[in-house]
Specification:
Length: 51
């Protein structure tokens, strides 16, 4: 199953995790790529989780 933009309220998830004292990293497994592709994936992840 693929998750996309708008599928999860990441800002709400992050607030709930912060209230519980949790902090962590976001990671994604991707099948390689050049710097431009990886920068694009990072930008999309930042936008999705509201960073």
């Amino acid at each position: 199953m693929d998750l996309g933009e708008g599928d999860i309220d990441w800002a709400g998830v992050n607030r709930a995790l912060s209230k519980s004292g949790y902090s962590g990293w976001v990671s994604a497994e991707v099948p390689g790529g050049n710097r431009q592709r990886l920068a694009d994936i990072k930008a999309r992840l930042d936008r999705i989780v509201g960073l």
